[in-house]
Design goal:
Blueprint lengths: L2 E6 L6 E6 L3 E6 L4 E7 L6 E5 L4 E5 L6 E5 L5 E3 L11 E4 L3 E6 L3 E6 L5 E5 L9 E6 L6 E6 L4 E5 L4 E6 L6 E6 L5 E5 L3 E8 L10 E6 L15 E2 L7 E7 L4 E6 L3 E6 L5 E5 L1
Antiparallel strand pairs: 1-2, 2-3, 3-4, 5-6, 6-7, 7-8, 9-10, 10-11, 11-12, 13-14, 14-15, 15-16, 17-18, 18-19, 19-20, 19-21, 22-23, 23-24, 24-25
Length: 278
């Protein structure tokens, strides 16, 4: 399976695309129509995350536990130390100076981008051995990481202090998608076939680090003319699993892809619903 990542203005002059294959990486200059470099890796690539600040792409093999960094300027490959707990990793994310690895064994391992060493771990303080399934670095603050869990919980961590800022309950299945909308709101989706938009409220107690977080707007597929509070945005495709969710932030559309070949599309402004058969 090939994954395409758009790299905007790496050299401040052109648009580039990074293609990540099962065992190789290719970096294309779309503006000039030429291949910059290609790298063949000795491992299978299951997860990839781009750091535009460091101009590297971090690639990981789920079964091997191996993580490598590939420079987008030179094409050189740098291997990181393999850790047993990285085997079976569930997701990967990067910020300007950190790498986040979601694992069943140790929660979310935080690695330094400069030295590729573990500098901390993020764990659900009340969930024991909760397994993280999805990671998202906040676009508004690289010092925050959103973590979705197998049991449906969503938490926001302060990466510098390794503490939970917000904890949000609403899903009954593993979280499989996390996105930020242009409004700054967080949208989460899970295997329970529900997507929830979360709204950050001002903190009442200014001395507390905990934000007051609640569900702001959710919609059903039943021909709503506008947003309605307190309802779930859900799917009623029987005997079919949701394979993926994604958000078009420009047009504020939510896409849900089902194993039966059906795609549900919601307008997050109006709540209008569309069905696409593939």
């Amino acid at each position: 399976m090939v994954k395409l990542i758009v790299v905007d203005n790496v050299d401040h002059e052109s648009l580039s695309v990074l293609s990540v294959g099962s065992r190789d990486i290719a970096f294309w200059d779309v503006t000039r129509g030429q291949l910059e470099f290609s790298v063949n890796l000795s491992q299978s690539v299951d997860l990839a995350a781009l750091s535009t600040a460091s101009t590297v792409v971090i690639c990981a093999g789920v079964h091997s536990g191996l993580i490598v960094a590939v420079s987008l300027t030179s094409g050189t490959v740098e291997h990181m130390p393999v850790a047993e707990e990285y085997r079976g990793m569930t997701d990967l994310a990067v910020s300007a100076d950190r790498i986040f690895v979601a694992t069943a064994a140790s929660g979310v391992a935080v690695l330094s981008m400069a030295q590729y060493v573990v500098v901390g771990n993020l764990r659900d303080p009340h969930g024991g051995h909760s397994v993280p399934t999805k990671l998202l670095v906040s676009g508004q603050n690289d010092g925050q990481l959103v973590v979705g869990y197998r049991h449906g919980l969503v938490q926001i961590f302060d990466v510098d202090t390794l503490t939970v800022i917000s904890s949000m309950s609403g899903h009954s299945g593993p979280v499989n998608s996390l996105h930020l909308l242009p409004s700054g709101q967080l949208i989460s989706a899970a295997d329970d076939q529900c997507a929830i938009i979360w709204n950050h409220q001002p903190c009442v107690d200014h001395e507390s680090r905990n934000d007051v977080v609640g569900v702001s707007e959710m919609w059903t597929r039943s021909g709503l003319q506008g947003p309605q509070t307190g309802e779930e945005l859900s799917c009623d495709v029987s005997k079919s699993e949701v394979r993926c969710y994604t958000v078009d932030s420009t047009r504020c559309l939510l896409y849900a892809g089902f194993s039966c070949g059906v795609v549900h599309v919601w307008n997050l402004y109006t709540g209008q619903f569309h069905l696409i058969h593939l």
